[in-house]
Amino acid sequence: QSVVTQSPSASGTPGQRVTISCSGSSSNIGSNSVIWYQQFPGTAPILLIYTDNQRPSGVPDRFSVSKSGTSASLAISGLRSEDEADYYCAAWDDSLNAYVFGTGTKVTVL
Amino acid sequence: EVQLLESGEGLVQPGGSLRLSCAASGFTFSNFAMSWVRQAPGKGLEWVSGISGSGDRTYYADSVKGRFAIYRDNSKNTMYLQMSSLRAEDTAVYYCAKDVSGVGIVVLDKWGQGTLVTVSA
Description:
The structure holds 2 protein chains of 2 kinds.
Chain A: E1 5-6, E2 9-12, E3 18-23, E4 35-39, E5 46-49, E6 63-68, E7 71-76, E8 85-93, E9 98-101, E10 105-109
Parallel strand pairs in A: 2-10
Antiparallel strand pairs in A: 1-3, 3-7, 4-5, 4-8, 6-7, 8-9, 8-10
Chain B: E1 3-7, E2 10-12, E3 18-25, E4 34-39, E5 45-51, E6 58-60, E7 68-73, E8 78-83, E9 92-99, E10 108-111, E11 115-119
Parallel strand pairs in B: 2-11
Antiparallel strand pairs in B: 1-3, 3-8, 4-5, 4-9, 5-6, 7-8, 9-10, 9-11
């Protein structure tokens, strides 16, 4: 049972904007950076975006993040078919002294 | 190019032990913290354990504390996960991941392809 929760699914048509939420607490999201990972079926996760909208090379600026209090969100603008994947938020938890992943959100492109 | 290669895949009986290895290349291994992350079949990601670049700090999820031990040999550019008292719920693909930090677990910027651990009688 993760201490960080995400909505199980999100969907949109090509070109739309989709937002994924990530809800935690003061000991994780509220006090530490939130990181987002993308995972395609049958493959390893990859780093997608993190602090202050930093993106590894190759990640388009269609992906952006924000944080407010103990919640964070990932926005995908101009949705494309290749964005169909699972998305996970993560943060260090000061109380657990552990890294925690969110429950994950499956994004479907209709 | 950063490469992380896990090994140690296997089928083990409940209560048994297994050691996973993660061989790293393409970066100065001792400068970066590393983690193990697992994913049970059809489930989400679960962070298991992490270790600082020097190896002097280790971190564990409550679910494995006291049963798993993480360590590294910087002379061999390799990280290990010694798993004991294995349970059915430890069945998962285990990924090793490199951090951008040298000490804490912050951003896992590179991942291996994973190795499957199955715990079953």
